[in-house]
Design brief:
Strands 1, 2, 3, 4, 5, 6, 7, 8 and 9 form a nine-stranded antiparallel β-sheet that branches. By secondary structure, the chain is an alpha+beta fold. It has a single domain, classed as Beta Barrel (Lipocalin), CATH 2.40.128.30. Strand 1 (42-48) and strand 2 (56-62) form a beta hairpin. 21% of the residues lie in helices and 41% in strands.
């Protein structure tokens, strides 16, 4: 074994590691481009899975924006209930990975706590092939943590 052999081996490893790094970067960029290409403009409608309190999720997509995002009711994860309470969410931007996230809140409409925030909601989603979205709706009831919960949902164009 001559003295130059270890140096040659190190040089080969550096080249291999650099090539692997370039390949990984290309895969990440291709994945992001593919995800962004899956976003279809239009009106989306879906429901929680499994169905809960008849909650319908709806929104519109135009370019890189999610607008008109709403649920037909606030899901309840304990006994009780009342009339349907629609919630409207803030508009959201679709990321380069084809995901979005938005927050909403339910303001109590009657009774001694009228005008106060009754629950906070967060919705996130990921666009899939064929005009589909899969995501999660998280509900946090203020003052009633046992009624809070999280549900998956699906929606289609």
């Amino acid at each position: 074994m001559n003295k130059r052999q270890p140096a040659r081996m190190r040089h080969r490893w550096k080249g291999t590691v650099a090539a692997a790094g370039v390949l990984l970067a290309l895969v990440v960029l291709a994945t992001a481009a593919f995800a962004a290409g899956q976003v279809e403009s239009g009106s989306y409608t879906g429901a929680l899975v499994p169905s809960r309190d008849g909650v319908v999720v709806s929104f519109k997509v135009s370019g890189k924006r999610v607008t008109g995002l709403s649920t037909s009711n606030v899901p309840l994860y304990c006994s009780g209930g009342g009339r349907p309470t629609p919630v409207h969410f803030k508009n959201a931007t679709i990321s380069s990975k084809g995901t979005f996230s938005s927050n909403g809140r339910y303001i109590i409409q009657e009774g001694p706590k009228k005008g106060q925030v009754g629950s906070k909601l967060k919705i996130d989603g990921r666009f899939l092939k064929g005009g589909a979205v899969k995501g999660t709706l998280t509900t946090t009831y203020l003052g009633f943590p046992n009624c809070s919960g999280k549900s998956p949902y699906t929606a289609k164009v």
